[in-house]
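In this supplementary section we document a worked example of the pipeline. Step one takes a protein sequence of length 709 as its only input; no multiple sequence alignment statistics are reported here. Step two produces a three-dimensional model, which step three serialises into structure tokens for compact storage. The input and output of this example are shown verbatim.
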Amino acid sequence: MPPTRRHAALEWRHIFARTFAAIPSAHAFLPALFACASALVLSACGLELPEQPYFETLLTLPFGSERFTGSDLADESEYVLVDSTAGAPLRLFFEGVVDTFRLGEKMDITLPATSLAGSLDQIEIPTPDPVDERFRIGELTDLDLPEDGLAVVVPAFTIPPIRRALPTQDELSWVRFSSGQIDVTIQNLLPIPLGDESTQDPSLRVRLFDGTRGGLLVETTFPAVIRTGAVARSTIDLTGVSLPSALELEVSGESPGSSGRTVFITPSSGFDLSARFVSLEPDSAVAVVPAQELRLEDSVAVALNDSLGIVGGTVRDGIFSIELRNELPLGATGSLRFPELLENDEPIVLAVSVPPASGGVAGSSTETIDLTSTRVRASNDEPLDRLQFELDVTTVPSDGFVALGRHQSISAEFEETTIRFASVEARPTDVRIEIPHTVTELDLPEELEDLDLAAASLRLVIANAVPFPANGMVTVRSVGLPNPIELPFQVAIAPGTSASPVESSVSIDESNSALLSLIRARPEAISIDGEVRIGDGLVTRTVGREDFVRGRYEVSAPLRVRLGLLERTADDFDFTVSRDVQDRIGSDVTGVVARGQIENHFPFAAETEITFASSANQLDETPEVILALVRAEAGFTDETGRVIEPALTSFEVTLPDEDIPFFARDRVFGRMVFRLRGDSTAVVSLSPDDYAEATGALEFRIGVGERRP
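The serialised model returned by step three reads:
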């Protein structure tokens, strides 16, 4: 509230008249004197001059009444408050807020872009038919035997290369093996051995040839001697070997014959060869391919801003976008399963299909899953840290020959996505919520710059709508000081809900912190930082997306102060002067005195300075008339420093003659400045009821008539 103005316009009043010159009879002159006074009061044009004798009269120009109260500080500064308690002192007060943190910011699971790929564990192709062949003596040597046999001495002989075509694999054109073998067995049914011990040469050599192009594919050999009735085995390694569908088997070798002995031998005598394809792992093939099965299993790490220990939750929104790519020449169908994502309490299963590759370009299809209103549940009831997915795919059997390789794969590409929860079941372990950096600017009123506060307190209030107890670590800092001041403290925070947040608070003051030093240092601003820690990893509770933590702080300093100087400028005033009065001031005024009274209800001595100028701007820059400072003693205080009775001080200030002509003008502007001065040692209290009031007037002595010599 602005100071009370007790005058609105200039009022000229004739206070009294008295005779200063020798007059023969004062009683005879009184009627004329009062007539003159009445004319002066009623006339706006000037003064009626008696012809005789000469005398002086007083004209009073009130320059107003100005009042400065403790409440003015509260009205004009957002940082000074009037306490609602009757008689309580004024308070220096400012406050700030701790920005709201909503827990929803920590309830978003980000799944990075990832891929899942799988190739055929094995290519299912028809296994080549077994080979069972007998090689008779008539093919091995040029002996001419009767049908019923012959006892004969068999000379040594060389078995020429004997080649036979194997059965063609109708559903296989070509195959390359990553592993596998052919087991070859020889059983000697001849009455003579195969092989020669003296030379240690292989008894037999078995080879496979390309039945179409004729090239050698693989071969194996047998021990030096295979005796009569013996069975010998050998293995052909197929690793890295490519076989066509048409194969030719070739056998060659040596025999020492009967070594001069006579043996009975028949045309059907010979040796048997069998070959079995075993443990085949095709690497690639051109074949008629039956259905192939693939199972792809993987998981992706759940990326959380700061893990709440999410055990489960209801999804507010989220979309999976999956691109399936198929490098196989076979179309495929299958299912994509997410064990931790539930719909109707069952894991979400997405049916998928993808066309075959064609012309060297992989087949592709895109699938999406809208997760809105689904649930997430960790499979082991532990906080979720990974999200699993399983892809089972079965290919379509080929329609004719296709080229198929184990390097070809079916893959699932997952785009980066974010799952936002509406609520979660959380089991947090020391989750840290940063208190946003908050700065409160301080613009303390100039009037308070010289106040030396005697006490201060800070109260921090944290409102918690999270259903977990928490601990807050907070630091208040000064801003803009050469040597910053820090005030660290902690607050225990009770649990609450978004429907019923619970407030917890902590207070510090000059007795247990450097708060008073911070306030006295007059920082440009104060900042607040810190963090709130939630959870012990043992308790699981439901947390809503709108659950929040927020706060505020209040700094209060009762104006119990040690005062140096408190300056207050009252509102400007002005008055007008008539032309007649201006003429009198210029010619008939013999002196001017400022008289008045200061009533001081402040606990400090008060000084009042009154200035006059020809314009409002001049009051700010160079006032033309300055009345000397008038001092009023401090009000009378009790033992607490509170004023119980004002001090009254009258003043009288004579203006120098050279200042008198200034008032001979149409309009005069004025200003009062109050200065409260303390001794900077005594502690006193400022209250809203304290005030300093100055009233006064200018008294002009006007000479009337002609002064006798």
